[in-house]
Amino acid sequence: MTEPLFWLGLSILLVAVSLTAVLMAALPAFQELTRAARSAEKLFDTLNRELPPTLEAIRLTSVELTNLTDDVGQNVQAAGRVVGQLDQSITGVKQQAKQAQVATQSLAVGLKAAWQAFRRPDIPLQPQPQETGEFSSSEPKLPASTSKVLDSAFTENIFDDEAFSSEASDPRQQRAQRLPAEPLNPVKPNHS
After folding, report:
1. Angle of helix 144-155 versus helix 171-178 axis, rounded to 10
2. CA 46, CA 87: separation in Å to the nearest integer?
3. What pLDDT does residue 7 have?
4. d(Cα 50, Cα 55) in Å, to the nearest integer?
5. Would you list the DSSP string of 17-43?
6. Are 114 and 159 in contact (CB under 8 A)?
């Protein structure tokens, strides 16, 4: 064992066997790396072919989304204007309904007053007196009881409205007030 050349040769042989074993074990790994490199190259080629149109489609989609957003904003503004016009229309309709209600109530009160006046059997229909306050000979004369009925009938407030209060002068009331309290031709008892 004193020969160094033997040991050197043996060492080189062992290193060569080890390297051969490592290369044999690494050969399938190198083949897999080659296949992976080829697959990566194919993937990059596919990306180079497919990615630009995809990016262009994404850019166009973003432009379309921007346009749609603008359209939606304009539609929302238009809807807001329509809602404002609708609100104004509803306000106008409410005002017209109030006016119609007031007119209907006035008509109902007028019809009620006319009906009450028409239905009163205690008020005889008599011609109006002349300006002097006297009746002509052809007109019938009212007895005192009729005068009192007329006074009570015309002083009664038919209307609920304050506009027809006692401040308004009614020619029929004035006529009823001008009528004498006693009959014009009192019946004189016969002293026979």
Report:
1. 150
2. 60
3. 86
4. 9
5. HHHHHHHHHHHHHHHHHHHHHHHHHHH
6. no
pLDDT band for position 125 (cuts 50, 70, 90): low
Does residue 85 register a pLDDT over 50? yes
Per the model's pLDDT, the better-predicted residue between 5 and 82 turns out to be 82
Closest CA to 146 of 158, 135, 137: 135
Secondary structure letter of residue 133 according to DSSP = S
The pair of three-digit structure tokens given for residue 192, joined into one six-digit string: 């026979």
Give 137's DSSP letter: T
pLDDT tens string 127-151: 555 555 544 445 455 555 544 444 4
C-alpha distances out from residue 164 to 14, 58, 102, 124, 128, Å: 136, 80, 16, 23, 22
